[in-house]
Amino acid sequence: MEEYPRTLTEMEEQFRTEQSCRDYLFRLRWPNGFECPRCKGREAWTTNRDLFLCRRCRSQISLVAGTIFQDTRKPLALWFRAIWYVVSQKTGASALGVQRVLGLGSYRTAWTWLHKLRRAMVRPGRDRLSGRVEVDDAYVGGRAEGGFGRTKGQKALIVVAAEEEGKRIGRIRMRRVTEATAENLQGFVCAAVEPGSVVHTDGWQGYSGLDKKGYIHEVSPVSQQPKKESSLLPRVHRVISLLKRWLLGTHQGAVSGEHLDYYLDEFTFRFNRRTSRHRGKLFYRLLQQAMAVEPTTYSQMIRHIRGKHHRRHHIW
Predict the structure, then answer these.
(1) Where are the domains of the chain?
(2) What count of other Cβ atoms lies within 10 Å of the Cβ of residue 259?
(3) How open is the CA angle 217-220-221, to the nearest 5 degrees?
(4) Burial class (CB in 10 A: 0-12, 13-18, 19+), 130
(5) CB neighbours (10 Å) of residue 56?
(6) CA nearest neighbour of 133 among 244, 218, 229
(7) Is the torsion defined by CA of 62, 63, 68, 74 positive or negative?
(8) What secondary structure does DSSP assign to the chain, as a single string?
(9) What is the pLDDT of residues 40-74, one digit of tens each?
């Protein structure tokens, strides 16, 4: 399909009505025509409630069921404007900014929408990194004192992989981990990097054994090098530096540890598409993935957070 608006004016003109939004989502969900998720029937009627009635099994199917738009009470046109705003901000969008631009009645609505969209920023079945890949772990968060080695108080530990493209950085992957153990670090590498690739790390013992998992493991022990670690693994440390700046700049450090993974997903989505010349292409991709991601409610998003106000539990 790959049909998308190039400018804000084109977007507003193309999606002026709910029906135009529904037609676009229909083509994203069923590019080859309607297909019943229950019986795989290809013919359906539309009911007065905008549901599809399968001719074969008589099931009623909602266009947005099983997507991030499920059960929304807001117009799809408003969602489309929100998505355009999110992808058009090169450094990202805050919940306060979304609330103000869209005129939403509450901060909670804007915050929930952004987290729904962050969940859609990970494409199901995406390709793993390949070639030569730098991998390292780092801490993000406040100025917690104490700790030693790979343990730093209350800070959040993340592990990052960055493809080498000459002297440049290719695609990236990142994930929060609880500890810098072999199980966590190598588990990340196996999920993020294609076997047969060259994986370049420092000499931390948690990376030992990658060669037995089908990787060519290149090690640069920091203690045996006169250079700083950032110069031994320059690409991955550049990514970590940009991530920290983004979290402190765009989000003012107001990121809870419980939701850090989703901010990492957003940063990855933006970084891997940083060379895209058309914001409309990102708009299309995010909408496409939003139709393939299971719905999540606000209650589900905050169920693991203690306390009454989730915004208080920050890593900074």
Answers:
(1) 132-244
(2) 20
(3) 120
(4) middle
(5) 13
(6) 218
(7) negative
(8) -----SSHHHHHHHTSSHHHHHHHHHHHH-TTS---TTT----EEE-TTSEEEETTT--EEETTTTSTTTT--S-HHHHHHHHHHHHH-TT---HHHHHHHHT-S-HHHHHHHHHHHHHTTS-TTPPPB-SEEEEEEEEESS------TT--TTPEEEEEEEEEETTEEEEEEEEEESS--HHHHHHHHHHHB-TTSEEEE-S-GGGTTGGGGT-EEEE--GGG-SS-HHHHSHHHHHHHHHHHHHHHHTSTT---GGGHHHHHHHHHHHHHTTT-S-HHHHHHHHHHHHTSS----HHHHHTT--SS-GGG----
(9) 999 999 998 999 999 999 999 999 999 999 999 99
Fold for the domain defined by 132-244? Nucleotidyltransferase; domain 5 (3.30.420)
Measured CA to CA, the distance from residue 48 to residue 54 in angstroms comes to 14
Query: What tens digit of pLDDT does each residue of 217-270 get?
Result: 999 987 655 556 667 899 999 999 999 998 887 776 667 778 889 999 999 999
